[in-house]
Amino acid sequence: MNRAFKKLESVRKDLIFWKAGAQPPQLLASGEVVMTSVYNGRIDAANNKDGKNFGIVWDGSLFTLDSWVILKGSPNVDAAYKALEFMGKADVQAGLPSHIAYGVTNKDSKKYINPKRLKDLPTADENIANAIEINTQFWLENNDRLTERFNKWAASNG
Amino acid sequence: MTVPASASAAPAPADPAATHDSPAALKQKLRRAERMRKLRAMGLIAPLFFFLLITFVVPIADMLRRSVHDTELSTVWPTVTAAMKGWSDRSTVPDEATFAALAKDLRAAGETKTLAVAARRLNYAVDNGRSLVFGTARRLPVNATNWKETLIGIEPRWGQVETWNAVNQASGPLTSFYLLAALDREKLADGSIIKAPEQNSIYIDILERTFTVSLSVTLLCLVLGFPVAYLLATLPPKHANMMMILVLLPFWTSLLVRTAAWVVLLQEHGIVNEILLALGVIEQPIRMIYNRVGVYIAMTHILLPFMILPLYSVMKGIKPHFMRAATSLGATPTEAFIRIYLPMTLPGIGAGALLTFILALGYYITPALVGGAADQMISFFIAFYTSDTVNWGMASALGAVLLAATLVLYSLYNRLVGISNMRLG
């Protein structure tokens, strides 16, 4: 952690922090920054819908998995399982990337995805090769204290 | 006999004989009419009163309660939190009975799947509190002759006073933990209060920052708004109305839109920088956004109408012949302005400044979008704790500190300016 803060310190003057997911593509487009952390779906949308030509460095990218939750005591438990089963099917999941360039969890679904589209996804083999899963456990444990420390750092001789 | 003016709104007595009533009976009748009038008035304000009660008083009271009321841990670990009351020697860890209670609660919470609640609460005060709770629960034996040894054997941190101090402070039902944390303080096991570790003590600085930004924005609004209000009040109505629309138009536009517009204007290759570059005023684009400058510009712009409108309404009431009288009596225009005009606008300045300042204190989205990481005000952290980490106690404590600081400042301001001297319109 100290190493991370030291690294931040070395680039302090060149950093801009964003709050909303819509900001990074805008910051890139306006020339405010030359490189940014970003949700890959935003870059894909900017490239395909707004005619931009941003590149993505997949090496060392961070990813996280979302979860479905069935409420305890729900009257529709069976229907919920059915929905989960349906959503887990390879051919169903393969429909997602045509709407947003997010990854698919069923490995078989790659067969159904257009290879041209597949290379835009974080779950494409060459893209995920060196990716790191965000450690939810770590952040549950440290979010408050690290946020305080980060803000202390940000406020000092900024 | 005449009816006093104050009762004129009451229904006229139906009985003509009433005019012959004795003074005492009349007085009673008058009182009844007066009471009816009051009741009707109360009936009229009742909806507003209840609305305020539900949307204003109750949430604030609940926020204040949450900043000191802490039952998260005691609902999932009832035995050990009750046992903590018997922890008398604060220089060493509690006795065997308390450790046994902890083991019992760990098992029970494991079965009812509420360990996460306890883990989260302890994590606020103990580094890696989650792994402490889950790690111990995972390796908890079914039986033990000496729970103290067993638990410390599993997790040496149970042998530290600091850990038990955290459990004790989280035992509720009342706690000073959040309020102290919001003031960068923490309480040791022996009851003494110390400064929090340097890298985590940020809230006093942030509170200072919040007040500095709000005060600067208020002053900027006053300096910019005063001439505009004067112009509005003195121009002939035809032009004044036009100007008024220019003042009100941004006032009616969404705050988010105006903030986003400033991003477009101020960014490195934005309109302002491009024009300055083209005119040769600057050679390099200047950084006007994602820093304090951007926050000042955007917030001043957004809050300006709140300063102009009260000033305008007061200035509108100042007759021009006061100034004329002053000059005819030998005052220079500057002197007449400072000694005659300015004092008469004070109620407007007072009201406008207070309104702007209090509104600025709570700003969140504007600094978040046009400010840098070092320009976030206290609302940013309240939002962080409410929606990002769901730490309601901390969010409430920060809110309570902000409320208290604002009230102190308000009373000072009241002493200086006098609330009765203020006019909003």
TrEMBL record, chain A:
Pfam family, one: SBP_bac_8
Presence of the UniProt keyword Signal in the record: yes
Keyword Signal appears in the UniProt entry: yes
Gene3D superfamilies documented for this protein: Periplasmic binding protein-like II (3.40.190.10)
Top-level taxonomic group: Bacteria
Keyword terms of this UniProt record: Signal
InterPro entries assigned: SBP (IPR006059)
Coiled-coil residue windows: none
Protein name, UniProt field: Spermidine/putrescine-binding protein
UniProtKB/TrEMBL annotation, chain B:
Region (Disordered) residue spans: 1-24
Residues passing through the membrane, by range: 39-61, 211-233, 245-265, 293-314, 349-370, 390-413
Membrane topology reported for the UniProt record: Multi-pass membrane protein
InterPro entries the UniProt entry points to: MetI-like (IPR000515), MetI-like_sf (IPR035906)
Keywords, sorted A to Z: Cell membrane, Membrane, Transmembrane, Transmembrane helix, Transport
Pfam family, one: BPD_transp_1
SUPFAM superfamilies attached to this UniProt entry: MetI-like (SSF161098)
GO CC terms in record: plasma membrane
GO terms of biological process kind: transmembrane transport
Subcellular location per the Swiss-Prot or TrEMBL entry: Cell membrane
Domain ABC transmembrane type-1 span(s) in chain numbering: 207-413
UniProt superkingdom: Bacteria
Protein family per UniProt: Belongs to the binding-protein-dependent transport system permease family. CysTW subfamily.
PANTHER family in UniProt: ABC TRANSPORTER PERMEASE PROTEIN, INNER MEMBRANE ABC TRANSPORTER PERMEASE PROTEIN YDCU-RELATED-RELATED
Name of the protein in its database record: Putative spermidine/putrescine transport system permease protein
Top-level taxonomy: Bacteria, Pseudomonadati, Pseudomonadota, Alphaproteobacteria, Rhodospirillales
